[in-house]
Amino acid sequence: MLAWAADGVVLLHLLFIAFVVAGAALLPRWPRLVWLHGPALLWGIWVEAAGAACPLTPLENRLRALAGAQGYAGGFVEHYLLPLLYPAGLTRGTQGALALLVVLVNLLLYARWWRRRRAGTPTSRTSRPGM
Asked: Quick check: keyword Transmembrane helix in the entry (predicted)?
């Protein structure tokens, strides 16, 4: 069960990263989500830019250790995602580039959402007349 819990933490971690990177794309449909996405985005940028560890990584490692498996050194991004993207591994420069990428993607998504809101374009199905 503990190994499954560790796998669940990995899944949660992946979903959180996806939400941080592209959660702003959900704002036209669910504008109030900004109150969750904004703090998540700031946290994700800070973790990458500062080289900090996300609390989910030690939790996963602890669950794996309790299940009799071995944890890993480094962070989640370094262990799971970077081998897919960068074979050399994680460096501070790579972390900075990832943080910048997240900022740029979200600047574009938030700008698009904000422009639509200011133009009076309906932001969700429920806000359209007749829906």
From this structure: yes
